[in-house]
Amino acid sequence: MRPEREILHVDDDPLMTQIVAKRLQPYGYQVASLNDPTEAINEVIHKNRRVVLLDIDMPGLNGLEVLKEIKRYDGGVQVIMLTGLVTVSSVLESVRLGAEAIFFKPLEDFEELHQALDRTFQKIDHWWDALHDLSHRKRVERGAETVEQC
Q: Please, which residues bridge with residue 8 across strands?
């Protein structure tokens, strides 16, 4: 079973999470929004979120810290940074910590973000296919061993 095209968007600005959810909906994405970054890791763990849009500059717990925690929990969770904090160090640190891409607010055109998200879901689909194939191969091997034992 493949996961749906669900995205967790974490941004301390409620207006930004509303805009992003509304603008991504026509592309077929279901967006769950959080405005408290301290809740993000629990959401990833307990709701099995595989794709996260993450702001960097948030009070209490910044997005780079959240990114680090997400990747520590599961390096396969795909994270795209969507931030107003435009610095070379924030871009480099995002990449170093494992972000798939970084986009800067305000976004005028959501097409590039959609393309990045689409590539991210293709990557996830590829791994699901590989896991399915491996599982199938193991079942076939077990079946062959059973036949040989008879």
A: 32, 52
Tokens representing 118 are 């689409």
Confirm whether pTM is higher than 0.70: yes
% helix / strand / coil in the chain, to the nearest 5? 55, 15, 30
Please count the residues of the chain: 150
pLDDT tens, 36-47? Answer: 999 999 999 999
Of 55, 73, 72, nearest to 64 (Cα)?
55
Q: Sign of the CA dihedral 46, 48, 49, 54?
A: positive
**Where are the domains positioned within the chain?**
6-149
Fold of the 6-149 domain? Rossmann fold (3.40.50)
DSSP state of 6: E
